[in-house]
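Narrative of activities, Objective 1.

The group set out to show that a structural description can be obtained from nothing but a protein's sequence at a throughput compatible with the screening campaign. Below is one input-output pair from the validation batch, recorded exactly as produced.
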Amino acid sequence: MSRKLFTVGPVHVEDDVLRAMTRPMITHRCKEYKALHGSIVEKMRKALDTDMDIFLVGGSATVLIEGAVRNGVSSACLGLSNGSFGNRFIECGTANGKDVARVDVPWGKAIRASDIEGKVTDATEAVCWVSNESSTGVLNPSTELAEEVRRQNPDALVMVDAVTSAFAADLDLRRMRPDALMFGTQKALALPPGLAFVCVSEEMMERSAKTKGKGFYTDFVKLKKNADENYALTTPPVSLMYALDYQLDRILAEGMQARYERHAKMARMVEEWAQKRFDGLFPEEGFRSRTIGVVKRGGLDFDAFHTALKAKGYEISNGYGDIKSSTFRIGHMGDITPAALEGLIKAMDETLEEMQ
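Output recorded for this entry:
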């Protein structure tokens, strides 16, 4: 049985977007590919309002999160965490032999500038964190954090995991000025998984040119050399790129401000429902995700609830990490609309009534 996905990812993909993947295959070194690659980068820059270089590789965003660490850190960095994916970012550093100092903030709380006061030293080559922590539903104030990092050490690079915020929340890249901002196709871009992206600064490229032991697949210098010619370093998923190019047209036609407002409206809808039916949302007020509602589930038998909900044609997500047993998550990103979300809410209400 097919189900409408209100999950944290992969997410629901519209039928016309899937059909865009069925165009005839081309090689990744031909002129048609070059036009496709260039079109994608141009549209992505317009949507994100940035002039930064944008590289793409086949894989999930984690490959470029790890790549950012390998390109931008020779020995020491600072990792900020308030959830499972902040921990993963830190693990990407330690797994690559970097000395990662860390700042841990309680789950459900936002990371604030005050949390890192005095923590960014002259030896700190980069500071890494997650924009939208999808295990807890916290949207961190990334511009505030980036400004504080640079106040303490202007040479420290800013690396941001924007996997569940890019294309759904206005990250204001011109103010944040990240040195590496990573995301993928299967979240707010509302595409199948398989492509990862990184927006990189000139400072990141200067650092990458000096860094040893970067490997091959995500060597930013190699990626830029090819990207400057609208080519990929290695064979990309061309069919997925067809769908991405099509989807970017749809996104730009909607308008980015309208897209951000739609996601914010859905976040409010989930928050109101969670307050009515449960004990509200897990994350603190004022720093709540635009794409994921993390609901405090109390004594709810989530497995029974979810089984009944899936029988009605809807799928959501369980809790994650340390709060898996006390929360569940509702994803409302990408092409999900308030009307579609209303359908899910009605089905959840019916299911809760049936379980009484």
